[in-house]
Amino acid sequence: MQLPDALKEDALHLRNSLLDYRMRNLGAVIVDASRAVEGIAPRLNQMALPLLSLMDDATDREEFTALLREASAALDAERESDPESRILAALERLESKGAPSIPLHAIAREASADGQGGALYAREAGRYLRDGGIVLHKSHGSIVVQNRQYIDKVA
Fold first, then answer.
1. In the chain, what are the domains?
2. Which pLDDT tens digit goes with each residue over 63-82?
């Protein structure tokens, strides 16, 4: 994409102005941890805290906080549709039923039942679980996960 030279000059001027501000106020701006936004991803808080510390207007802070909450919700939704998350959530649901072992095909079926992101197959579920360090065993012709192993491994 071709941009006009004037836009490049404006961008360079803005960049230099921001760097100048940053250098002049390097020690002056102190991060106010009390302005952390509860209920959002820690990484978002880490990025937003310096900016929130500079905002004196409560209305601006509230608007920015609302944007952060929306971004965090979008990140959470994206993570929930991730195959790994779906498989671990399915394993947790099946484990709560109390069976001594959980067949891999049941985990894949449960993970696919939510209707997000398409069908997951037992082979795929097994790969994700093994990659996560969860040991699978063969029992009575089926590949299974022993109950409680998941919680011990993740916790």
1. 5-80 (no CATH), 83-154 (1.10.10.1420)
2. 999 999 999 999 888 777 78
